[in-house]
Amino acid sequence: MFGCLVAGRLVQAAPQQVAEDKFVFDLPDYENINHVVVFMLGTIPFPEGMGGSVYFCYPDQSGMAVWQLLGFVTNEKPSAIFKISGLKSGKGSQHPFGAMNLPQTPTAAQIGISVELLESLAQQTPVASAAVSSVDSFTEFTQKMLDNFYNFASSFAVTQAQMTPNPSEAFIPANVVLKWYENFQRRLTQNPLFWKT
Protein backbone atom coordinates (compact mmCIF):
# COMPACT_ATOMS: atom_id res chain seq x y z
CA MET A 1 0.00 0.00 0.00
CA PHE A 2 2.90 2.42 0.82
CA GLY A 3 6.37 3.18 -0.45
CA CYS A 4 9.29 5.14 0.93
CA LEU A 5 12.12 6.73 -1.03
CA VAL A 6 15.40 8.31 0.01
CA ALA A 7 17.57 9.86 -2.71
CA GLY A 8 20.41 7.57 -3.75
CA ARG A 9 18.77 4.47 -2.27
CA LEU A 10 16.44 1.79 -3.55
CA VAL A 11 12.71 2.33 -3.15
CA GLN A 12 11.20 0.54 -0.15
CA ALA A 13 7.81 -0.83 -1.14
CA ALA A 14 7.25 -3.42 1.59
CA PRO A 15 6.76 -1.78 4.98
CA GLN A 16 6.71 -3.83 8.15
CA GLN A 17 3.10 -4.06 9.39
CA VAL A 18 3.23 -3.65 13.17
CA ALA A 19 -0.54 -3.44 13.74
CA GLU A 20 -3.64 -3.69 11.58
CA ASP A 21 -3.47 0.04 10.83
CA LYS A 22 0.23 0.82 11.37
CA PHE A 23 3.23 0.38 9.08
CA VAL A 24 6.94 1.08 9.54
CA PHE A 25 9.91 1.56 7.21
CA ASP A 26 13.45 1.28 8.60
CA LEU A 27 15.87 4.07 7.67
CA PRO A 28 19.42 2.86 8.22
CA ASP A 29 22.12 5.53 8.44
CA TYR A 30 19.42 8.17 8.91
CA GLU A 31 21.92 10.84 9.92
CA ASN A 32 22.92 11.11 6.25
CA ILE A 33 19.34 11.60 5.03
CA ASN A 34 17.98 15.08 4.33
CA HIS A 35 14.58 14.31 2.75
CA VAL A 36 12.31 11.31 2.56
CA VAL A 37 9.37 10.73 0.21
CA VAL A 38 6.37 8.72 1.42
CA PHE A 39 3.83 7.66 -1.19
CA MET A 40 0.94 5.34 -1.88
CA LEU A 41 1.68 2.59 -4.40
CA GLY A 42 -1.72 3.00 -6.06
CA THR A 43 -2.64 -0.65 -5.56
CA ILE A 44 -4.86 -0.21 -2.49
CA PRO A 45 -6.54 3.14 -1.70
CA PHE A 46 -7.40 4.25 1.81
CA PRO A 47 -10.92 3.30 2.91
CA GLU A 48 -13.45 6.13 2.53
CA GLY A 49 -12.83 8.87 5.11
CA MET A 50 -9.37 7.58 6.05
CA GLY A 51 -5.80 8.78 5.51
CA GLY A 52 -2.34 8.15 6.86
CA SER A 53 -0.37 10.24 9.34
CA VAL A 54 3.38 10.00 8.70
CA TYR A 55 5.83 9.97 11.61
CA PHE A 56 9.61 10.06 11.90
CA CYS A 57 11.16 8.09 14.77
CA TYR A 58 14.80 8.27 15.80
CA PRO A 59 16.76 7.33 18.93
CA ASP A 60 17.67 10.18 21.28
CA GLN A 61 21.02 10.27 23.13
CA SER A 62 19.79 7.76 25.70
CA GLY A 63 18.46 5.40 23.02
CA MET A 64 14.78 6.21 23.66
CA ALA A 65 12.48 6.53 20.66
CA VAL A 66 11.49 10.08 19.70
CA TRP A 67 8.46 10.28 17.39
CA GLN A 68 7.62 13.41 15.41
CA LEU A 69 4.61 13.97 13.14
CA LEU A 70 5.77 14.89 9.63
CA GLY A 71 2.46 15.19 7.80
CA PHE A 72 -0.09 13.13 5.92
CA VAL A 73 -0.90 11.14 2.81
CA THR A 74 -4.44 10.62 1.57
CA ASN A 75 -6.19 9.36 -1.55
CA GLU A 76 -6.33 12.99 -2.73
CA LYS A 77 -2.65 13.63 -1.81
CA PRO A 78 -0.96 10.25 -2.34
CA SER A 79 2.64 11.42 -1.87
CA ALA A 80 4.63 13.89 0.19
CA ILE A 81 8.24 14.97 0.62
CA PHE A 82 9.46 15.59 4.16
CA LYS A 83 12.66 17.22 5.38
CA ILE A 84 14.04 15.19 8.28
CA SER A 85 17.56 16.60 8.52
CA GLY A 86 16.56 19.30 11.03
CA LEU A 87 14.49 16.99 13.23
CA LYS A 88 17.26 14.95 14.78
CA SER A 89 17.44 17.10 17.89
CA GLY A 90 13.83 18.17 18.25
CA LYS A 91 11.21 17.23 20.79
CA GLY A 92 8.89 14.30 20.35
CA SER A 93 5.12 14.54 19.97
CA GLN A 94 2.15 12.35 20.75
CA HIS A 95 1.99 9.34 18.48
CA PRO A 96 -0.10 6.21 17.96
CA PHE A 97 2.79 3.73 17.90
CA GLY A 98 3.02 3.00 21.64
CA ALA A 99 6.34 1.75 22.99
CA MET A 100 7.64 0.15 19.81
CA ASN A 101 11.28 -0.81 19.80
CA LEU A 102 13.70 0.68 17.31
CA PRO A 103 16.23 -1.43 15.51
CA GLN A 104 19.28 -2.13 17.68
CA THR A 105 21.67 0.01 15.68
CA PRO A 106 21.97 3.65 16.85
CA THR A 107 22.14 4.92 13.26
CA ALA A 108 18.71 3.54 12.28
CA ALA A 109 15.46 5.45 12.39
CA GLN A 110 11.96 4.68 11.18
CA ILE A 111 9.14 6.20 9.18
CA GLY A 112 5.78 5.20 10.65
CA ILE A 113 2.42 5.45 8.89
CA SER A 114 -0.77 5.26 10.95
CA VAL A 115 -4.12 4.86 9.17
CA GLU A 116 -6.58 7.23 10.83
CA LEU A 117 -9.82 9.13 10.22
CA LEU A 118 -9.41 12.23 8.04
CA GLU A 119 -11.11 14.30 10.78
CA SER A 120 -8.41 13.37 13.30
CA LEU A 121 -5.66 14.01 10.74
CA ALA A 122 -6.99 17.54 10.22
CA GLN A 123 -6.67 18.25 13.96
CA GLN A 124 -3.00 17.20 14.21
CA THR A 125 -0.14 19.64 13.75
CA PRO A 126 3.00 18.37 12.02
CA VAL A 127 6.39 19.59 13.19
CA ALA A 128 6.99 22.81 11.25
CA SER A 129 10.53 22.09 10.11
CA ALA A 130 9.50 18.85 8.36
CA ALA A 131 7.72 20.64 5.56
CA VAL A 132 9.83 21.12 2.50
CA SER A 133 10.44 24.82 2.10
CA SER A 134 7.48 26.60 0.52
CA VAL A 135 9.94 29.20 -0.77
CA ASP A 136 11.04 28.02 -4.16
CA SER A 137 14.71 27.61 -4.86
CA PHE A 138 14.78 30.69 -7.12
CA THR A 139 13.47 32.94 -4.34
CA GLU A 140 15.89 31.43 -1.86
CA PHE A 141 18.79 31.89 -4.32
CA THR A 142 17.77 35.49 -5.02
CA GLN A 143 17.65 36.33 -1.31
CA LYS A 144 21.08 34.78 -0.73
CA MET A 145 22.45 36.62 -3.76
CA LEU A 146 21.07 39.95 -2.48
CA ASP A 147 22.64 39.42 0.93
CA ASN A 148 25.95 38.42 -0.61
CA PHE A 149 26.02 41.41 -2.98
CA TYR A 150 25.17 43.90 -0.25
CA ASN A 151 27.77 42.46 2.13
CA PHE A 152 30.40 42.42 -0.62
CA ALA A 153 29.70 45.99 -1.76
CA SER A 154 29.58 47.25 1.84
CA SER A 155 32.99 45.76 2.57
CA PHE A 156 34.52 48.35 0.18
CA ALA A 157 32.83 51.35 1.80
CA VAL A 158 35.12 54.27 2.63
CA THR A 159 34.45 57.72 4.00
CA GLN A 160 34.96 60.78 1.80
CA ALA A 161 38.10 61.59 3.75
CA GLN A 162 39.54 58.17 2.89
CA MET A 163 38.84 58.49 -0.83
CA THR A 164 41.75 59.17 -3.15
CA PRO A 165 40.92 60.89 -6.41
CA ASN A 166 41.07 58.58 -9.39
CA PRO A 167 39.53 59.86 -12.61
CA SER A 168 39.13 56.36 -14.07
CA GLU A 169 36.90 55.05 -11.21
CA ALA A 170 33.22 55.75 -10.55
CA PHE A 171 31.98 55.71 -6.96
CA ILE A 172 28.47 54.77 -5.90
CA PRO A 173 27.28 56.01 -2.51
CA ALA A 174 26.61 53.14 -0.07
CA ASN A 175 23.14 54.50 0.73
CA VAL A 176 22.18 54.02 -2.95
CA VAL A 177 23.17 50.34 -2.79
CA LEU A 178 21.26 49.97 0.51
CA LYS A 179 18.14 51.62 -0.99
CA TRP A 180 18.27 49.28 -4.04
CA TYR A 181 18.76 46.28 -1.73
CA GLU A 182 15.76 47.20 0.45
CA ASN A 183 13.52 47.91 -2.57
CA PHE A 184 14.44 44.66 -4.29
CA GLN A 185 13.88 42.69 -1.07
CA ARG A 186 10.46 44.34 -0.53
CA ARG A 187 9.37 43.61 -4.11
CA LEU A 188 10.62 40.00 -3.87
CA THR A 189 8.59 39.50 -0.69
CA GLN A 190 5.44 40.91 -2.31
CA ASN A 191 5.79 38.96 -5.56
CA PRO A 192 8.73 36.57 -6.16
CA LEU A 193 8.07 36.79 -9.91
CA PHE A 194 7.98 40.61 -10.16
CA TRP A 195 11.12 40.58 -12.30
CA LYS A 196 9.21 38.86 -15.14
CA THR A 197 6.99 41.89 -15.76
UniProtKB/TrEMBL annotation:
Entry keyword annotation includes Ribonucleoprotein: no
Pfam family, one: Hikeshi-like_C
Subcellular location: Cytoplasm; Cytoplasm, Cytosol; Nucleus
Domain of life: Eukaryota
Keyword Cell membrane (UniProt): no
Domain Hikeshi-like C-terminal: 136-196
GO cellular component terms listed in the entry, alphabetical order: cytosol; nucleus
First-listed, main subcellular location of the protein, grouped into a coarse class: cytoplasm
Residue ranges of domain Hikeshi-like N-terminal in the record: 6-130
Molecular function terms, GO-annotated: Hsp70 protein binding; nuclear import signal receptor activity
InterPro entries the UniProt entry points to: Hikeshi-like_C, Hikeshi-like_N, OPI10
Coiled coil, from the record: none
Gene Ontology biological-process annotations: cellular response to heat; protein import into nucleus
Chain ranges passing through the membrane: none
Keyword list, A-Z: Cytoplasm, Nucleus, Protein transport, Transport
Subunit relationships: Forms an asymmetric homodimer; required for binding and nuclear import of HSP70 proteins. Interacts with ATP-bound HSP70 proteins.
Its job: Acts as a specific nuclear import carrier for HSP70 proteins following heat-shock stress: acts by mediating the nucleoporin-dependent translocation of ATP-bound HSP70 proteins into the nucleus. HSP70 proteins import is required to protect cells from heat shock damages. Does not translocate ADP-bound HSP70 proteins into the nucleus.
PANTHER family in the record: HIKESHI FAMILY MEMBER (PTHR12925), PROTEIN HIKESHI (PTHR12925:SF0)
Family: Belongs to the OPI10 family.
UniProt-recorded name of the protein: Protein Hikeshi
Species annotation: Bucco capensis (collared puffbird)
Gene name in the database record: Hikeshi
